[in-house]
Amino acid sequence: MSSKTCHPRRQFIFIKTHKTGSCTAVNIFQRYALLHHLSVLIPTGGNLLAWPFPPAEQDYVHTPEEQYDVLLNHVVYNKPWLRSKFPANTAYISIIREPSSQLRSAFNYYSLPRLLKIQSQNPVQTFLQDPWKYKHLSEAYFDFCNVTWDGTRNFMSFDLGYPTEGAEDKERAHRYISELEADFRLFLLLEHLDESLVLLRRLMCWEVRDVLYDIVSKNNRSYPYKSYIPTAQELTNLRRWKAVDYLLYDTFNASLWRKITAQGPDFYEELRYFREVKKRVGTFCRTCKQRRRCDPPSLTIEASKWSRQFAVDSKYCSRIQSQELLLGKYIRERASKEDRKEWTIMRVADNVLRIVQGLPTVKYKAQAE
Fold first, then answer.
1. What pTM value is reported for the model?
2. pLDDT of res. 4
3. Tens of pLDDT along 120-176?
4. Residues 6+ apart with CB under 8 A from 232
């Protein structure tokens, strides 16, 4: 499907879930918003919009008409609030990941072993032997907003609006995920990111250049248990413990392949083309970075069945290689809005450490200073 035969979708919300590869994916949406001068709903201060609560009036920059084209930040999916700020035809997109790998990443990043008081060399293995043993510790209470969050349990579902308290309610979970199927245009899957992005390009009627990404991970970390593969019994325990996240993942994994099948056989031709172009662009941009200049000054990607001809230059390379914070800064500067530090939202990881230390959680970083 060529973008010549359809009209690009330029209103979209990317619900940036935690520890799912969303830092890599958000670069695509940030670049698109910058390229097309779209109206982005941006935080008043910092790079976090609101979590785990809907944004208050002082948390985001208002436009005169109170309508926006794009949202790109961590925010718990809240359908009524989002519908009040974005056009009815806005495309809702998110990214999810196989739950056991998401758990390992969350354990490391959010200092969950400290929260759970696990001191073993492989805290994930220890936890998976009996997750219910740690329930009284894993359920972290954010007192400033009266919300309970469990970073070990259904973290992705929580980001998508499902409450921690519903972990055992299978009927409620099925109903909610059915609602997400109706609400969302697409869920990207980290394990099948190339396939997801080719499908995204087709569904959004974008250009191939829009959905390329840097093959160097944006937020990659090393830790001892990163490659740990749970035993069959541990996976059984995890499937019971993270039942809603597994239902979420299984549902949208199946949905992805149904949508791909509906695209027809040339989808896989485009997928091969996409991977070839991604490799060429990645090599060119890495060389530019190593040499601190592009020589030759640009790389021409010839026109194809799926793409018009386009050039990759130093500006394109700089943006595709940029971290989320830097592109967020460009978006803010383009909107001519001051970064008001006093309204910077406290990071989840920092609030978890406050809980570990016996301190109350806070909404704004300034409240902890």
1. 0.95
2. 57
3. 999 999 999 999 999 999 999 999 999 999 999 999 999 999 999 999 999 999 999
4. none
**DSSP element (H, E) containing 186:** strand 186-189
Element (H, E) at 157: helix 155-159
Spans of the chain below 70 pLDDT: 1-4, 218-219
pLDDT of residue 275: 97
Collect all residues with Cβ–Cβ distance below 8 Å to 295 and sequence separation of at least 6.
288
Both tokens of 320, joined, read: 């595709």
C-alpha Rg value of the chain to the nearest Å: 21
As to burial, measured by CB atoms within 10 angstroms (0-12 exposed, 13-18 middle, 19+ buried), residue 233 is exposed
The DSSP secondary structure of 301-366, one letter per residue, reads E---SS---EEEEHHHHHHHH--HHHHHHHHHHHTT----GGGBBPPHHHHHHHHHTTPPP-SBGG
At residue 256, the 3 state secondary structure works out as helix
CB 341 within 8 A of CB 347: no
Nearest CA to 218 out of 20, 15, 40 is that of 20
CA dist 341 and 258 (Å) reads: 45
Q: At what angle do helices 314-321 and 22-35 cross, to 10 degrees?
A: 140
Tokens 């005169």 sit at which residue? 64
Pick from 26, 47, 17, 40: nearest CA to 365: 47
pLDDT for the residue numbered 336: 79
Residue 369's pLDDT is 82
